[in-house]
Design a protein that fits this description.
By secondary structure, this protein is mostly helical. 40% of the residues lie in helices and 8% in strands. It has one domain (3-7, 20-203). The chain has helices at 20-44, 74-82, 97-101, 103-113, 117-120, 128-140, 147-151, 156-165, and strands spanning 3-5, 53-58, 85-87, 170-171, 202-203. The two termini are 24 Å apart.
Length: 204
Amino acid sequence: MIQLNGVTPIENSSIAGSNTASGNQSTGAFQSQLSAALSATLEQFGVDPSLVNITIGPVTNSTSTTNTSSPLTGFAAIAAAVGSYSVAAPTIATSTPEAQTDPIRTFDDAYWAKQPDPIKALRNIDDPTQRAFQAANLAASGYKIDVPIMVWGWDPSKVTDLRKSFGYTWVPSAMEAPVEQAPGVASFGQPYDPNSAPGGSIAV
């Protein structure tokens, strides 16, 4: 299961007589539920949850707002929920001498460079909730959205290496049905066919 670090009870000075033990208990339950939800989502995209370690903490930006006019579904709902916390992610820098000699940075820059301009803009959106909403709009407009990379901000090089190591030749985009069986697994659901990628899928 995915490892979450840094979840602490939310302090609220307006609530008198707060019970620390109760706060820790509810935080533990929330952490377990969030971890289970993220693990299930990661497995659908061919990522081993046990290899993921995320540090999260409460968002301190009080100016961020959430659009509640209509309920979110699918990846947008998950991304918005995760967006309630600040998720540690690698800082993306512009081209530097170090980047020119770093194969991971070179791969990541090349990955983003070949994306359409509207998708490239996602790389520079720091707020996870805003990035999720923008990605949802692009997906609804017909763009292929790779959720772990374009919404969650994960490293393209590492995500690609993980997928290849599990035998994936394609993964579904945000608007497609998830993979029911991992490559080489024959238990239930639709088997994964590495040679027959759906039209809206993303090549690995």
